[in-house]
């Protein structure tokens, strides 16, 4: 549910019906963040393609790293929808609940240096993008990240800023049932 009209799966036709069916087949269910695109199925498909590439394609970043960035960026933006979804996903990769709690609270001091620097960069890029300097990139390299990794951190950060603004700007809601149980 959102503040704008959405087309339910039972009412979908044409391209939207096909996209919905593919989503349910691939992910097990339809998320509200994608359903909010239902009036523009082309944007829904492009959004999904970008998400799948950034979060699942081969990268020097682990899936856990990417989910940690998602949670940190969403926490910095105060986006409860994305925090809930991606903290749930992060829990699949990070078994220590104190780490997830620290990321949600934007408290990176006790985290491993590589992860702390990645998340600090992501939050700075989210909150003060004009203050990013070459030194920020150098610090990422000093943590063992290569330029492709840094690009991927930047892209995942930018993506979640984009999605947070969709969720917050259109009032995308969630429930425990909607957050849990995705195939990927």
Provide the β-strand percentage band. under 5%
End-to-end span in angstroms? 22 Å
> What would you report as the Rg, rounded to the nearest angstrom?
17 Å
Q: Would you identify the CATH H-level superfamily of the largest domain?
A: AhpD-like
Structure description:
The radius of gyration is 17 Å and the shape is elongated. By secondary structure, it is mostly helical. The chain has two domains: about 10-55, no CATH class; about 65-170, AhpD-like (Up-down Bundle), CATH 1.20.1290. It has helices at about 15-25, 30-35, 40-55, 65-75, 80-90, 95-105, 115-125, 135-140, 145-170, 175-180. Helix 3 runs antiparallel to helix 9 and helix 7 packs antiparallel against helix 8 (about 135-140).
Write out key terms for the chains shown:
AhpD-like; elongated; 184 residues; 2 domains; mainly alpha
At a glance:
This protein is mostly helical and 184 residues long. The protein has 2 domains: 49 residues, no CATH class; 108 residues, AhpD-like.
Helix-strand blueprint:
Layout: H1 14-27, H2 32-35, H3 41-56, H4 63-76, H5 80-90, H6 97-104, H7 113-127, H8 134-142, H9 147-170, H10 176-179
Helix pairs in contact: 3-9, 4-5, 4-7, 4-9, 7-8, 7-9
């Amino acid at each position: 549910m959102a503040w704008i009209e959405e087309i339910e799966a039972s009412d979908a036709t044409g391209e939207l019906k096909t996209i919905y069916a593919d989503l349910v087949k691939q992910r097990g269910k339809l998320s509200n963040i994608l359903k909010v695109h239902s009036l523009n199925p082309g944007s829904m498909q492009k959004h999904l393609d970008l998400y799948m590439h950034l979060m699942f394609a081969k990268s020097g970043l682990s899936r856990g790293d990417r989910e940690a960035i998602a949670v940190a960026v969403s926490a910095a933006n105060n986006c409860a929808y994305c925090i809930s979804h991606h903290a749930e996903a992060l829990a699949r990769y990070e078994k220590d609940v104190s780490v997830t709690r620290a990321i949600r609270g934007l408290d990176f001091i006790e985290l491993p240096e590589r992860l702390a620097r990645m998340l600090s960069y992501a939050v700075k890029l989210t909150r003060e993008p004009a203050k990013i300097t070459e030194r920020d990139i150098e610090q990422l390299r000093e943590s063992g990240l290569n330029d492709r990794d840094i690009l991927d951190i930047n892209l995942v950060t930018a993506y979640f800023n984009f999605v947070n603004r969709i969720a917050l700007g259109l009032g995308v809601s969630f429930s425990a049932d909607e957050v849990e149980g995705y195939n990927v």
